[in-house]
Amino acid sequence: MEKQAAYAILTDHLKAQGKLRATPERFAILDAVLQSQGHFDVEALYYRLITNGVKVSKATVYNTLELLQECGLVSKYRFAENTSRYEKAFGRPHHHHMICLNCGDIIEFTNDRLERIQEEVAAGEDFSIQSTTIQIFGTCSKCTKK
Amino acid sequence: MEKQAAYAILTDHLKAQGKLRATPERFAILDAVLQSQGHFDVEALYYRLITNGVKVSKATVYNTLELLQECGLVSKYRFAENTSRYEKAFGRPHHHHMICLNCGDIIEFTNDRLERIQEEVAAGEDFSIQSTTIQIFGTCSKCTKK
DNA sequence: CTCGGTGCAAATGCTTTGCAATGTC
DNA sequence: GACATTGCAAAGCATTTGCACCGAG
Questions:
Q1: For a designed S-S bond to A20, which of A14, A59, B71, B79 qualifies (C-beta 3.0 to 4.6 A apart)?
Q2: Residues of chain B with C-beta less than 8 angstroms from the C-beta of A80
Q3: Å between A55 CA and D8 C1'?
Q4: How many contacts does A have with B, using Cβ atoms within 8 A?
Q5: At what angle do helices A42-51 and A24-35 cross, to 10 degrees?
Q6: Distance, CA of A130 to C1' of C13, in Å
Q7: Domain count, chain A
Q8: Does residue A104 share a domain with residue A68?
Q9: Nucleotide nearest to A22 (CA to C1')
Q10: Nearest-CA residue of chain A relative to B143?
Q11: What is the pLDDT of residues A89-129, one digit of tens each?
Q12: How far, in Å, CA of A28 to CA of B79, rounded?
């Protein structure tokens, strides 16, 4: 089950860093992230934690999300707004986004050729890739029809 | 000369919108943008304007940059930080960025195949593209060598 | 002369920080 | 016990807003 694997990744990361501690808050936040669907912002995640009876502060949510990002369990995005958006990255293939500027809908897509060309381009500059983001802004089919 | 063409684009846009006025501030900011090299943030542009003796407020800079974005004279980006970055879009081909997470350097690149595949992907979803952004995060060659 | 635009400063909203209290190791 | 981590509230920043004044049309 994915939960155990994700826990293991986090635990390993904590140990690997030497001084990081395994606190209940960190695992509670990881839980909440695993249960999430699609994209979420800190506000929504915090709200879900609180209403589920988990006592955490927003500061801890921010800190932990950064930690989870470091071990590849969540991805952080910044579309057009001034809020950061996150999404669970565990057990999901690397993918990109089409963002509808009208209704805000986000369509995910994957494309091997895009990945390969990006690698080629980076290699040409001796640039070593850590992560890539492709965002296509425009109007989705639903909004075009209206 | 590019300045005249850019002025014309802005003037046309103002007229086209019906109620927008041609104020000296708007053209002064456009001037400053045209003189810019690479990416800049509001702070830097504002500072350049002030030190050049142009009296504008930051609010106007924000407003005008949005206006210039609407008529395609500047592009707005959001890399990882919490500041928006802009760059002059006039007379430049559509391009993308590799961002070095170590030194912050930004390498620009263009690639026709990437553009074409993006179009294909969007077409497959009946999504009509307005703009696209590709960001490759990682380590640049200079930093790798160190 | 009318209303859109500007400057200023205050307000907003996301994110970070400082510090005492807490609990992991 | 030592010290990383937490919670809380205050501080920071980038960006936006409200409003009186100004000036383009």
A1: A14
A2: 78
A3: 13
A4: 111
A5: 110
A6: 30
A7: 2
A8: no
A9: C24
A10: A127
A11: 987 888 999 999 888 889 999 999 999 999 999 999 999 99
A12: 29
> Which domain range does residue A35 map to?
2-88
Predicted model pTM: 0.85
Q: Which residue is nearest to nucleotide D6 (CA to C1')?
A: A60
The two tokens of residue A135 are 């965002």
The CATH number that applies at residue B126 is 3.30.1490.190
Average pLDDT over every residue of A15-41: 93
**pLDDT grade, residue B10 (50/70/90)?**
very high
- Top residue of B134, B137, B140, B142 to mutate, by most chain A CBs within 10 Å, is B134
Nearest to A114 among B117, B138, B141 (CB): B117
Q: How far is B52 from B75, CA to CA, in rounded Å?
A: 23
> Does residue A1 register a pLDDT over 80?
no
Contact between B135 and B79 (Cβ < 8 Å):
yes
How would you list the strands of the sheet with A74-77, edge to edge?
A: A39-41, A85-88, A74-77
B contact set with A (CB within 8 A) = 78-80, 82, 98, 100-101, 107, 109, 111, 113-114, 117-118, 121-122, 125-141, 144
Nearest to A134 by CA among B64, B118, B62: B118
Do A10 and A52 lie in a common domain?
yes
- Only one residue has tokens 């407020």, namely B57
pLDDT digits (tens, 9 = 90+) for A31-46: 999 999 889 999 999 9
Cα separation, B81 vs A92, in Å, equals 25
Query: Do both B100 and B65 map to the same domain?
Result: no
